[in-house]
Write a structure and sequence with these properties.
Layout: E1 4-7, E2 10-12, E3 18-24, E4 33-39, E5 46-52, E6 57-59, E7 67-72, E8 77-82, E9 91-98, E10 102-104, E11 108-112
Parallel strand pairs: 2-11
Antiparallel strand pairs: 1-3, 3-8, 4-5, 4-9, 5-6, 7-8, 9-10, 9-11
């Protein structure tokens, strides 16, 4: 059974930064891609960023230039560095790992508030 576990959420002021981590229970090279979605209150879950097995990255337009996805192969971990956070970034952030099936973490809350 594959597990992915997020960490690093919290409360931050507008303009601040947070780094989310997503640890997989097996080598990240087992997956075609890993990435992040988020769901704000009352809204649909939306994609944020992803990194493919080849290391290619993709971002939602709303986070381009502010968020960076990266990985540590040795730690089987993917990171999401979030800078210049705004109120609109408040959401539960979910990590996923995709292979023949898609595995989701439990989510981590990010709250941007003054």
């Amino acid at each position: 059974q594959v597990q992915v576990v997020e960490s690093g959420g919290g409360l931050v002021q507008p303009g601040g930064s947070l780094r989310l981590s997503c640890a997989a229970s097996r080598s990240i090279f087992s997956f075609n891609a890993m990435g992040w979605y988020r769901q704000a209150p009352g809204k649909e879950r939306e994609p944020v960023a992803m990194i493919t097995i080849d290391g290619n990255t993709h971002y939602a337009d709303s986070v381009k230039g502010r968020f960076t996805i990266s990985r540590d192969n040795a730690k089987n971990t993917v990171y999401l560095q979030m800078n210049s956070l705004s109120l609109e970034d408040t959401a539960i952030y979910y990590c996923y790992a995709a292979m023949s099936s898609t595995y989701w973490g439990q989510g981590t809350q990010v709250t941007v508030s003054s």
